[in-house]
Amino acid sequence: MAEPMTLPKLLQKNARDLRDRPAIREKDRGIWQTHTWLQYHDNVRDLAHGLAAVGFKRGDKLSVIGDNRPRLYWAQVAAQTLGGVSVPVYQDSIARELAYVWQHSEVSVIVAEDQEQVDKILGLKDQLPALRLVIFDDPRGMAHYGQDWLKAFQDVQALGREFETSHPRYFEEEVDRGRPEDVAMISYTSGTTGNPKGAMLTHANAVETARIFMKAEDVRAEDEWLSYLPMAWVGDVIYSLVLSLAAGFCCNCPESPETVQRDLRELGPTTLLAPPRIWETMRASVQVRASDATPLKRAVFDRFRAAAEETEILRADGKPVPAGLRFLCALGEFFAYRPIRDQLGLRRARWCYTGGAPLGPETFRFFRAFGVNLKQVYGSTELSALVSIQPDNEANPTTVGKPCPGIEVKIADKGEVLIKSVGVFKGYFKAPEATREVIDSEGWFHTGDAGFVDPRGHLVIIDRAKDVGATADGTPFAPQFIENKLKFSPYIREAVVFGNDRSMVCSMIAIDSNTVGNWAERRGVPYTSYMDLSQKPEVLALVCEELRKGNATLPDPTKVRRFLLLTKDLEADDAEMTRTRKLRRSHIADKYAPVIDAFYSGKNEVELATVVTYEDGRQATIHSRVRIEDVDAGVPAHV
Description:
Layout: H1 7-17, E1 22-28, E2 31-36, H2 37-53, E3 61-65, H3 70-81, E4 85-88, H4 95-105, E5 109-112, H5 115-124, E6 133-136, E7 150-152, H6 153-166, H7 170-177, E8 183-188, E9 198-202, H8 203-216, E10 224-226, H9 234-247, E11 250-253, H10 260-267, E12 271-274, H11 276-291, H12 295-316, H13 323-344, E13 351-354, H14 361-369, E14 374-378, E15 388-389, E16 402-403, E17 408-411, E18 416-420, E19 427-428, H15 432-438, E20 445-453, E21 459-464, E22 469-470, E23 476-477, H16 479-486, E24 492-498, E25 505-511, H17 513-522, H18 530-534, H19 537-551, E26 560-565, H20 585-591, H21 593-601, E27 605-613, E28 619-630
Parallel strand pairs: 1-11, 3-4, 3-5, 5-6, 6-7, 10-11, 12-13, 13-14, 25-26
Antiparallel strand pairs: 1-2, 8-9, 9-19, 14-15, 15-16, 17-18, 18-20, 20-21, 22-23, 24-25, 26-28, 27-28
């Protein structure tokens, strides 16, 4: 029998072969609710029939908005069953972002998690001429909504069961009509330079990429996966939806974003994907607990941590580990490493991934030293989220791993990374010119990333190719490389550096309010808000010292010489970052032009007029006067 090549066909196979195995769970009111593969299939079938009953047809677009919920995943597969296209969006998007994506993609049906998301749609309904139906999952608070185009999820499924009585083979026939080359989903890119583009991914893109992943990694049907990352992010699409269907493992949806860490510890997934910031936060939480422990416990932790990290460095360098060190690590496994993995929810994890941005070497080695098989993965929306993975015995913080089997990598003349694989997307929706700009006549996708392949065959990513430049003296300048060095500090959440064609490198810093707040509380430094905390002399001194540590690993011409602490975090709502926390450099350069001018004109202060955007689109302006500090001066003189 031929292998299924569409997502609905994979679901049919799982309902037949894995009938009573867990497929997806949801934590509701503190209790995990489990759905088997047969139940998954039946829910998708009922909804697909319901959508057909209300006129959803081949080529129509269905969007989902909300936290990770089984019904939102089912809705996407139901749309794909009927030849439709799923369009997931970020649940925290503000009104104008949602309006753009829904207008551009011409969605006719939206499946919303709850009342909050329905209210967003209500405010935009007049701007969405193609929208015919809104379906809500959670009925709480929805009793008094009387719009005829608004229906409960279970009501649409009930319509579907009625539809099935007069169309008994409709679902199976629609599944059979599906072709691998059909567009399965439109995944919108980050939009770092303007409006996001809709990357069309076919069933073949998604399914073949999942199979490549399964050849490169140890994936099992018994695995437990935590589905907590935004459903609009292509990483969640491929891992939580596609890979789960292809491998048959169980996805687990936490109760809410606020309970993810607790649910992670309770579940103990066998595999995990997390961006660098989450790994850095987990490491910081362990270190904070260790610093607050008794002197004896702190000494034991420090000793075992040092032994583990020394062992990890020796292994990474291919050197033998002395017997005494192996014995010390065996004791550490009992007294420290295993209990810490258990506290973090990683006691059963066979492999864990970090991706989206480089992870600091200290954090990377910290987790690997404590027995977590943490590795880097690289991909992009247009490549179905997968290019390379680090093998278990070759993981290190400087590369993004080896290209997976069947994926070709080529480095262009100017250092741009080019990719050819079955995962290369069909094109940008309603943007053929943009498609031709990134896929050349030979089928190579131009990633826009600058990088190289090292002697071991590992891919190394330096920065976005368009952002790589040079300082005034000709020294190569890669801003992301420097920013990531600075963000290795647990006290720095975001950094934006300037220096292209300039005499020196300067940086705007957004502090991490949690770690800096904890640091301030332990030292009795009072504060009232983010703005107040960021401008405390003690915090300025702390960050100045962190920048000096970061500078120690940078070439002299690219060391940060001057810096400023922002009075607010960089936010996607303010168009400073994308929803995947990538910097919008051109917008930042325009918005903070007075800061850049102050950096290079030698000023010690600058007037900031910061515009803050609320979810409904309203804006407010906050005025503040902020100091600019010289890193080389060490602790600022006024402290």
